[in-house]
Queue: 3 jobs
Job 1
Amino acid sequence: MLTPYQQALRDRMLAAPVLPAPEPWRPVFASCAPVGGLLGIGFATHPDSHPDSGNGRGNDSGNDLVMVVSHDGHGLFDAVTGEKIARERDPDPEDATPDSTADLTCPGLGPIAGTRVRIAGLYGGGLHLTAFGGWGLEVVHPVWPHERVLLTHGSGMPHREPHGEGWWHIFNSHYSELRTVGFSPSGHTLAVATSSDLTLWTRAGRR
């Protein structure tokens, strides 16, 4: 049985519609990138790109990259442009999924070949749930097993502030299983991965 406070909080989560992520975040894809059988994702950094990071100083470490591991192989997306820049349909069976390694990694591809990328998703692991500037993420389950992703700013307490002022319901995983949610280590990218697709937001400067 839920307490009156818990019931009120659950009702508040259920009543909150999906909203666009606020500035400075912007979607990378028109909606999402379909990835059938998605198992997990990880972040890396492009060694050759230097977009403006939005702070006027540039980003000497390059664009964020998102590596996707699925039943159909491995893929690599540029997290600023959304471009799929590398694809491996037939990875080595020993490295096809991250569960074969103690640190949950898979070999990089394309511009990050020769490195290994930590993968979060079906087999475990996790991504950053906070980012510079006071941003945070929460996953709530008002109607299990459907999961909702909340983007927070400031206090990080969606119980207190009005929806759209300090917290935003940005994703409702009502059609596929949620695999992982998180920010890139740079804090410039926000990712939501389900068993069927990848959704990205960025606050990095445009090329």
Job 2
Amino acid sequence: MTDPRPVRGSRTGRPIMALLDIMGRRWTLRILWELRDGPLTARALRAACDEASPTVLQARLAELRNAGLVDHAAGRGYGLTGLGDEFLAAFTPLYGFADRWAAATKPGTTTTG
């Protein structure tokens, strides 16, 4: 079954397309990655994200909260929800692949396939 809500780049509105749409937005993955070790205040999160624009950072946090991946608690800051933790657990193998890919695609490296 598909979700009829429009998703950028997809006419189907399938959940995977909606998730990829959210994850493809600037700073989204970085925000989730920086929250992997625990909650951060908006100021600490901005510093961890190389001083991302406060406007963009707040927009992404609002989207991630709406998506159920991040929550906010007064005095604690922004943190991952259970779904956010689950997403990072699914995403972590890609991090390892990225390291292998980068090593394999360095100039002068040959690949087989």
Job 3
Amino acid sequence: MLLGALTPVVAQAQTAGMVEEALPPPTGLAPLFSPTTAGPGMPDSDGFLRRWLLLDPIAKPNRTNSGFTSSYVREALSPRTYPGEFGKVPRDGELAKGEDAPRWHALDSNLFDVKLFKLAQGLGNPTYGVIFWAVTVVNSPREMRDVRLAIGSNSASVWWLNGQETAGLFGDRRMVMDDVLSRPVTLRKGRNVIRGAVINGPGVSDFCLRVLDASGRPIRDITIDVT
């Protein structure tokens, strides 16, 4: 994948203000993102997961973020609205279902938080009034009980572990690390799929996620992959 110069996917798109946005040429994804390397990755020194499959943004115009109630967000971000087979891990470069055939990108974030606004900008996609989907695979060396996903997002988001809704962040919020902790969950020995979606009206958008053990410490002896 070339991160410096990419062909625009669309010339115009709906923004949060419900007007047509003339999109500038894509700026590229460096230095905030890098293509994934061969083999699994590791959490960073603070336990954050940086390797993700990220989908081109899907238009969902909203004039403000103030209407992101739990009912609205769960309606907009659900297995029913997922642009594909919810239980399947997509492949890098795969086209998802949708009017504009959004594409999946396997990327490593070079920061602890995944800069979704910059992803969209870098690819020449709309940046406001959109939904971003993210998927990663966590491989655990053993079964781990009573762990929690620690999540921050701008703006609202919903997260699933192995197909089960695990955490939701609602309202007009800024991204703060460990803003919301999921209910206690179990990491299976072997492969675990984390899937999330972030919705944003005006403003920037990003997220961060790490897995904490029962004592609240970041788990580092896991690996992260996108297959």
